[in-house]
């Protein structure tokens, strides 16, 4: 990997050619190193040829020696060691096969593609750019080497044609973005696009539907819906460090006159800050939050059917697979109103939470209304237009509705929710015992804030044995002790529903009427974790007094505790209203 992922890749390739005899290097019986086809084009990163990659590997003594030993001691080797290395890096998306025989490919600010049908190797030699096959990829894209740069004016959410529409979905990251996220998304999407466009061969089948949209076998994921009658092919690829733009074409046969037409879908994906002019609904974002926006543009007919089947489903599912790889990452999936994108400033576009979109699919609603009042075809937002008609008529269960919404979240296991639930105990320091116990949940993991019922920690029911509304039932040496369900070692999961006591907390907010008017209207209070016990205390909590306490005073300290918070709705509920939890 270190031989290839270097920002001086072009210089290293040229230096290696000068220092080494090329004929001595090409010594393996390999399809990749095929003497006459050994392509040594001068390409700047982030693109490398298969032959140049193998040349760099052979130039390293330790790799070359390992390859020789592998050949020496192997009796039934089906591929050369360098072929194996190449396929291994493709499997882990370090190398992304890319077809440069397209109309336009701009990678990291350098333009490739058919803009110059022939690439000059040296002063006397030039080679043609030929389309690749799955078994003989000649060019590889290196997402890790994408340099800085912005997409500029490559994308607009507005349309000048009445037959076009723009759909968009987003993922909001309230606590920051993990490093390398956009790189992994770009690699996964381009790998899937390459597999889709190459698996069907060089001929474009206008009748067969299964060849056009097949997720690569190595991902182990379910296949996306087939393209609408024809083969997908790539027209343009533009990549930057934090965004990419795709223009995909699909040949469609007219059912009336049989004429073959081309349907073009444009797809833009970017990881954006609040200040970006391309960031949707940025006026409602908090400071420090970032948003991943995926947007597609194409024909509006049949609920955006040709957009979803023309590559949008493929991309949104690829992004979904990448997000599943990040355990414990906090993010919110949302859909954006296409009418708001067309008629309002992008920064003030309305959003739907993914649970509302899933509910619309579950209920079979034909339209959805945004907060502004726009009525939108549900199929455009959910992607249900890409499903077979038989599937649309089937009665829905919750699980089926999740599968119907393209790229939908999986059902959240109860064990994941339990990580945000805590035991709240009233611990009497005089007797070293927990005298009252209840439950609560984490609402702010950065500050260690917990919501629990007030009656667990204070008398709000008029019990004559303790003063009304006084914290800790008037016990002078009492504290609030917090119990959590521990995770398994080296795992994010929990192994049981048995909690251990780990923290002390204090009351920071309660119903103001308790002290001012002597009445409680809200049986809830907010706690803040203050210290952590040096060792967890199991059982009934006896022994909390014996444990030294570690002070937790800032965000960094709470980040190390890896608390899990539950999502809280900001919408006010009315009495007698049905609430879905």
As a percent range, the share of strand residues is 15-25%
Helix content: 10-25%
Q: Count of helical segments?
A: 15
Average pLDDT reading = 75
Q: How does the overall form come out from the CA principal axes? A: globular
Structural class: alpha+beta
The largest beta-sheet arranges its strands as 4-3-9-10-11-12-8-13-14
How many E strands? 23
Give start-end ranges of low-pLDDT stretches: 22-45, 114-135, 201-228, 388-404, 406-410
**What value does the Rg take, in angstroms?**
29 Å
Query: How is the biggest beta sheet arranged?
Result: 9 strands, mixed
N-to-C CA distance: 47 Å
Explain the overall architecture.
The protein is of the alpha+beta class and 581 residues long. It has helices at residues 9-19, 22-25, 50-59, 61-73, 81-91, 181-199, 301-324, 338-343, 354-363, 378-382, 389-393, 398-404, 414-418, 513-516, 555-561, and strands at residues 47-49, 96-97, 104-107, 110-112, 118-120, 126-128, 139-141, 164-173, 232-239, 243-253, 260-273, 290-299, 332-336, 351-353, 367-369, 375-377, 421-428, 433-444, 449-452, 478-484, 500-509, 525-537, 549-551. The strands form 5 sheets. A 9-stranded mixed β-sheet has the order 4-3-9-10-11-12-8-13-14. A 6-stranded antiparallel barrel has the order 17-18-19-22-21-20. A 3-stranded antiparallel β-sheet has the order 1-7-2. It starts with 8 loop residues before the first helix and ends in a 20-residue tail after the last helix. Mean pLDDT is 75; it is low at 22-45, 114-135, 201-228, 388-404 and 406-410.
């Amino acid at each position: 990997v270190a031989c290839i992922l270097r920002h001086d890749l072009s210089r290293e390739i040229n230096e290696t050619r000068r220092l080494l005899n090329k004929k001595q290097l090409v010594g393996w019986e390999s399809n990749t190193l095929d003497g006459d086809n050994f392509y040594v084009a001068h390409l700047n990163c982030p693109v490398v040829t298969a032959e140049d990659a193998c040349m760099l590997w052979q130039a390293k003594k330790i790799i070359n020696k390992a390859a020789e030993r592998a050949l020496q001691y192997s009796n039934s080797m089906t591929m050369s060691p360098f072929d194996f290395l190449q396929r291994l890096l493709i499997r882990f998306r370090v190398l992304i096969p890319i077809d440069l025989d397209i109309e336009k490919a701009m990678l990291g600010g350098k333009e490739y593609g058919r803009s110059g049908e022939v690439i000059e190797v040296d002063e006397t030699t030039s080679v043609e750019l030929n389309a690749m096959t799955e078994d003989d990829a000649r060019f590889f894209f290196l997402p890790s080497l994408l340099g800085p740069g912005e997409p500029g004016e490559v994308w607009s959410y507005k349309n000048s044609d009445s037959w076009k529409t723009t759909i968009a979905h987003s993922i909001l990251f309230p606590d920051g973005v993990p490093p390398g996220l956009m790189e992994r998304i770009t690699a996964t999407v381009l790998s899937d696009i390459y597999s889709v466009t190459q698996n069907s061969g060089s001929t474009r089948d206008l009748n067969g539907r299964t060849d056009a949209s097949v997720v690569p076998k190595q991902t182990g994921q379910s296949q996306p819906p087939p393209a609408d009658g024809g083969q997908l092919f790539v027209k343009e690829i533009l990549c930057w460090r934090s965004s990419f733009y795709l223009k995909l074409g699909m040949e469609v046969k007219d059912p009336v006159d049989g004429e073959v037409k081309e349907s073009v879908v444009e797809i833009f994906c970017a990881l954006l800050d609040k200040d970006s002019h391309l960031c949707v609904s940025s006026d409602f974002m908090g400071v420090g939050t970032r948003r991943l926006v995926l947007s597609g543009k194409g024909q509006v007919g049949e609920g955006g059917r040709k957009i979803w089947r023309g590559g949008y489903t493929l991309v949104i599912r690829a992004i979904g697979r990448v997000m599943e790889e990040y355990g414990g990452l906090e993010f919110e999936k949302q859909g954006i109103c296409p009418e708001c994108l067309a008629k309002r400033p992008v920064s003030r576009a309305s959003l739907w939470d993914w649970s509302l979109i899933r509910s619309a699919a579950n209920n079979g609603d034909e339209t959805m209304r945004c907060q502004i009042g726009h009525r939108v075809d549900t199929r455009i937002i959910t992607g249900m237009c890409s499903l077979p008609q038989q599937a649309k008529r089937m009665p829905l269960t919750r699980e089926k509705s999740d599968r119907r919404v393209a790229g939908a979240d999986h059902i959240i296991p109860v064990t994941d929710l339990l990580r945000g639930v805590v035991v709240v105990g009233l611990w009497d320091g005089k007797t070293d015992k927990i005298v009252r116990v209840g439950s609560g949940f984490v609402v702010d993991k950065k500050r260690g804030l917990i919501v629990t019922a007030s009656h667990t920690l204070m008398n709000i029911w008029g019990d004559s044995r303790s003063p009304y509304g006084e914290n800790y039932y008037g016990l002078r040496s009492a504290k609030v002790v917090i119990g959590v369900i521990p995770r398994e070692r080296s795992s994010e999961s929990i192994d049981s529903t048995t909690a251990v006591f780990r923290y002390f907390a204090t009351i920071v907010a309660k119903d103001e009427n308790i002290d001012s008017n002597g009445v409680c209207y809200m049986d809830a209070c907010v706690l803040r974790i203050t210290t952590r016990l040096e060792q967890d205390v199991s059982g009934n909590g006896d022994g909390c007094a014996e444990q030294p306490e570690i002070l937790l005073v800032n965000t960094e300290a709470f980040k190390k505790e890896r608390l899990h918070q539950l999502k809280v709705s900001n919408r006010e509920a009315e009495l007698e209203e049905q609430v879905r939890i």
